[in-house]
């Protein structure tokens, strides 16, 4: 009889512990993604370790390059290739969807020509918390 109640007690305690762990993980992810300028998934920086980046306004678009005017007035050339992940509103887009005047966040690696070979480009939309960072 006692082992039956012990088993029920362990099942209930284990269930409560599992719920607490899942709830805590949800709180962690929610806080990490609600900060201004944070990526849509909090572990993206770990995946892009050793990367370079830029935030600015598109001033020119050529075949596979985008020129971005940075906040300090300098320009940065962004090289786009087949491995580049382009997104807007967390939806995949193509290079033709990017327009002059769009605000971009870029993460990539240094290119031989002095620019950035983009791994990830996000077009920021009005009302996005990250957009306020680029003022």
Structure in words:
The chain has about 140 residues and is of the alpha+beta class. The chain folds into 2 domains: about 35 residues; about 90 residues, Beta Barrel (OB fold (Dihydrolipoamide Acetyltransferase, E2P)), CATH 2.40.50. About 25% of the residues lie in helices and about 35% in strands. It has 2 helices and 7 strands; from the N terminus they run H-H-E-E-E-E-E-E-E. Strands 1-2-3-7-6 form a 5-stranded mixed beta barrel. A hairpin with a 2-residue loop joins strand 4 and strand 5. The longest helix is centred in the N-terminal third of the chain and has 32 residues. The radius of gyration is 22 Å and the shape is elongated. The C terminus is likely disordered.
How are the SSEs ordered, and which strands pair?
Elements: H1 2-33, H2 44-47, E1 52-61, E2 65-70, E3 75-79, E4 85-88, E5 91-92, E6 103-110, E7 116-124
Parallel strand pairs: 3-7, 4-7
Antiparallel strand pairs: 1-2, 1-6, 2-3, 4-5, 6-7
Short description:
Helices cover 27% and strands 33% of the residues.
Keywords:
single chain; 135 residues; alpha+beta; 7 strands; 33% strand; elongated
Q: Report strand %.
A: 25-35%
Q: Assign a percent range to the helix content.
A: 25-40%
The SS-based structural class is alpha+beta
Q: Average pLDDT value? A: 81
Radius of gyration: 22 Å
Total DSSP E strands: 7
Please tell me the total number of domains: 2
Low-confidence stretches: 131-135
CATH superfamily of the largest domain: Copper binding periplasmic protein CusF
CATH class of the largest domain: Mainly Beta
> What is the CATH architecture assignment of the largest domain?
Beta Barrel
Global shape: elongated
Order of helices and strands: HHEEEEEEE
Reported by name, the CATH topology of the largest domain is OB fold (Dihydrolipoamide Acetyltransferase, E2P)
Largest sheet: number of strands, sense, barrel closure:
5 strands, mixed, barrel
Compute the separation of the termini in Å: 69 Å
């Amino acid at each position: 009889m006692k082992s039956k109640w012990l088993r029920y007690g362990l099942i209930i305690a284990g269930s409560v512990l599992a719920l607490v762990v899942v709830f805590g993980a949800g709180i962690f992810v929610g806080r990490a993604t609600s900060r201004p300028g944070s990526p849509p998934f909090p572990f993206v920086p770990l995946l892009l370790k050793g990367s370079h980046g830029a935030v600015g306004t598109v001033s020119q678009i050529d075949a596979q390059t985008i020129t971005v005017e940075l906040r300090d007035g300098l320009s940065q050339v962004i090289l786009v290739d087949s491995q580049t992940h382009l997104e807007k509103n967390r939806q995949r887009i193509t290079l033709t969807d990017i327009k002059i005047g769009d605000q971009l966040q870029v993460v990539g690696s240094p290119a031989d020509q002095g620019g950035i070979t983009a791994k990830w480009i996000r077009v920021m939309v009005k009302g996005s918390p990250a957009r306020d960072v680029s003022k």
